[in-house]
Amino acid sequence: MGSTSGAKVAVIGAGYVGLTTAACLSSLGHQVVCADIDQEKVDALRRGEATIREPGICELVVDGLASGRLDFVLGASAAAAGADIVILCVATPMSVTGAADLTTLESVVTEVRDLLPTGCVVVNKSTVPVGTAARVAHLIDRADVAVVSNPEFLREGFAVHDFLNPDRIVVGSADRDPVSARRVADLYEKLDTAVLVTDSASAEMIKYASNCYLATRLSFVNTVAELCEYLDANVDDVTAGMGYDARIGKSFLRPGPGWGGSCLPKDTFALLHIAESAGSDFALLRAAIETNLKQQELVVDKVRKAVGGNLAGTRIGLLGLTFKAGTDDLRDSPALAIAARLAAEGADLSGYDPSVHAPVAGVTDNVRVTGTAYHAAKGAAAVVLLTEWPEFRALDWSRIADRLDGRAVIDTRNLLDPVAVARAGLSYQGIGRPDSTRKPLPRTVGMVRQAG
Ligand code: UGA
């Protein structure tokens, strides 16, 4: 057993990352106090009510409270005093320049620095510019407190799963300080995974490089999909064929309406800004960002063409509003960016999303939020699927066809069976897929022999 088994941990911030970290660490046997500045959130969590939508989180919070290993408090100071390890999980939103805004992080550090017990390790989990661990150490300015960077790689909708089944743990400390790095690594000793110890700048860079690589990969795939349309190829087959190459791998190859969410857009802009500040031109990353905006425009072009060239006054039904399936998160959602572009051309939008039950002021203003996909389709010239909710596969396309004014179905996630849609008398278009007037090969016919 490592020295910090059953460590006393303070987690500052009860958002997606903070709450997941607190709940999972308590489930691993640590004594965790999680702090937030929102009294209502703290009260709800103390009652065992999860404040984020994540599979498994509610159970972990309830178990943690019942075991006495998890508690929630108001304010960072109440949690930090007496902790062996203080984990910072506060938001680092994008500022107007594209750089990460560190105001909250720095004010928390300033608030707790004099309360930290001797020997305490401050861990930064928030995604922060390279060099922030060094800056935090400078702000704390105490020889008896170490600062370590320990980035998270959690996907929304899979945060608990990803925390407890990580691909790797990265711990970055000044001069690879083995003692502090070991204490942080020991928090995860019950997990069977690779632990990489680096200097703090490299750990911070690993997080940005990972998210920016994923974003660039998707922009590449979306461009390949566009090219497939010109060349009569099928992107589903192309990415399947690419994915068999072990160097490429099968995941993160689905074309779509562009990537979004609270992380990839923010982190790509931030790394671009970091590169510029360092005097380096990250042209590839800039191209990935521009390609992502172009992808939204390509979707709008498809919709405009499908309704005869003019969107003004045209009713469009949208399926999906969140940035991906399995979350209620609308932040930087490509679906809403596309809705804004359609609305700017005068389209009249109805939209349905399984996790959005009411309009959100200032966020869904361009869209009339409906209670079912069938309501969203009513009187529309076209239906546009924007988020890959599995339940959209089970829609009754004849029922949709009965409600539609027009015939067009545009599937920006390549989620639907083109044949099922065409069978209802509708005209199907995916992204980089042959159109439904041609007969696509059933997928099982495409695969002649499986390995092994
Ligand atoms: C992302 C990373 O995947 C996590 O590893 C990271 O920890 C997290 O950001 C973060 O920095 O906190 P997340 O924002 O939850 O996680 O979303 P992803 O599942 O990565 O999806 C990002 C976007 O790419 C979504 O808009 C999604 O629809 C899109 N996407 C994803 C595709 O268009 N195609 C794919 O094949 C995969």
Please explain how this structure is put together:
It is a single chain. With 452 residues, the protein is of the alpha/beta class. It has two domains: 8-198, NAD(P)-binding Rossmann-like Domain (Rossmann fold), CATH 3.40.50.720; 212-429, Rossmann fold (3-Layer(aba) Sandwich). It contains 17 helices and 14 strands. It has helices at residues 16-27, 39-46, 57-67, 76-80, 103-112, 132-140, 159-164, 178-186, 200-231, 235-243, 264-277, 283-306, 334-344, 373-377, 397-403, 418-423, 443-446, and strands at residues 8-12, 31-36, 70-74, 85-88, 121-124, 146-149, 168-173, 194-198, 315-319, 348-352, 367-369, 382-385, 408-411, 427-429. It has an eight-stranded mixed β-sheet, with helices on both faces. The chain has a six-stranded parallel β-sheet with strand order 11-10-9-12-13-14. Bound molecules: uridine-5'-diphosphate-glucuronic acid.
The CATH class of the largest domain is: Alpha Beta
- The CATH superfamily label of the largest domain reads NAD(P)-binding Rossmann-like Domain
Number of self-contained structural domains: 2
- State the distance separating the first and last CA atoms: 40 Å
Kindly identify the CATH topology of the largest domain: Rossmann fold
Helix tally equals 17
Give start-end ranges of low-pLDDT stretches.
none
CATH architecture type of the largest domain: 3-Layer(aba) Sandwich
Q: What is the overall pLDDT average?
A: 94
Strand order of the largest sheet: 3-2-1-4-5-6-7-8
